[in-house]
Specification:
This protein folds into two domains: 63 residues; 104 residues, 2-Layer Sandwich (Beta-Lactamase), CATH 3.30.450.20. 47% of the residues lie in helices and 22% in strands. A hairpin with a 4-residue loop joins strand 1 and strand 2. Helix 1 packs antiparallel against helix 2. The chain is elongated, with a radius of gyration of 25 Å.
Amino acid sequence: MLARMAPDSLARLRNRLETARAEAPDANAQEDLDLCLAELEVLWEELESQADHLARERGRYTAFFDYAPFACAVTDGSGVVQEANRALCELLGVPATYLPGKPLAIFFADADRAGFRGIVARAAVDPLHGRRTWNGALNQPDGLAASIELTATNLPHAKGSATSLLLFVRSLD
């Protein structure tokens, strides 16, 4: 969002500096404003470079996550899906647009939902971001249950931010 807002903001700031330069009372003030304009251009170029780098990194992360050969999801601390990859969608038999915002517990066999919620709750409060592994059964689109191994890990965040979990699901069948 910064990259979309910044060109307009930069143009307004440049115009203000150029107006101030034209109205500057003496040559020293004009030189100072010229330096400010030059610094602004350099900072803008650095910002564009960083934005490009971040876009490339985001693209690499997205490709890695989406096309990983194993099923995985990022959830909140209670197991509600924030992101899910293609392998998990295929395993659950749902389109990619269906999972975000859904509690992953709804895909587990009734007898395993409490176990899933327990592993997620323990991982969510783990201060060392340790991994928790649990075996259960997922309901499949064909009505059969698939034995799985689920590994949950608490993702580190900045202080004060909400908990996110990374879940890996491996079929045991």
